[in-house]
Amino acid sequence: MNELLGWVSDHQQLLVWAGVVSFVVFILSLLSLPWLVAQIPEDYFLPKKRQPAEWKRLHPAVRILALMGKNLIGYGLIVAGLLMLFLPGQGILTLVMGLLLVDYPGKFRLERKLVKTPAILNSLNWLRKKAKKPPLIM
User: Fold this and answer.
1) How many separate domains does the chain show?
2) What is the rounded CA–CA span in Å between residue 51 and residue 45?
3) Which residues span the membrane (predicted)?
4) In this structure, is residue 90 part of a structural domain?
């Protein structure tokens, strides 16, 4: 116990910064998640195989930049969601939004499986209702 108290007193600056970062990520998630959830088309999870997004038909340079930006934001949300499982914030919702943004093999199957979980679907539809969007169709 004395070792823990000694570590805490030796690393007060680190703990303060961790608290500040946690607070900033929490505020950013509160502001961005409702908007991101509202951007999901209501029939996104309906087809067995997803249709290509409109941005994938753009010029290759624009498509690569968009893909890099989307994946960078997605990985940031995944990291923030993992942190928010232990720090204040909407960890599970942030993880789901990160997983929705990042491209990887088997993504669509995983998305459908996650969103079929009643707690996640209810949370997503609650955010969509607040944004005056129809609920997601499964």
Assistant:
1) 1
2) 11
3) 14-37
4) yes
pTM more than 0.90: no
In 3D space, the residue among 1, 56, 35, 58 whose CA is nearest the CA of residue 127 turns out to be: 35
Rounded to whole angstroms, how far apart are CA atoms 112 and 108?
6
Tokens of 86: 């232990």
Expressed as residue numbers, the domain containing 86 is 2-130
Task: Identify residue 1 by its one-letter amino acid code.
Answer: M
If you write DSSP's letter for every residue of 61-95 in order, what string do you get? HHHHHHHHHHHHHHHHHHHHHHHHTTSSS-HHHHH
Is 29 within the bounds of a domain?
A: yes
Helices (H), 1-138: 2-10, 12-38, 60-84, 91-101, 107-115, 118-130
Please answer whether residues 82 and 18 qualify as being in contact, where contact means their C-beta atoms are separated by less than 8 angstroms.
no
Cα(117)–Cα(138) distance, integer angstroms: 11
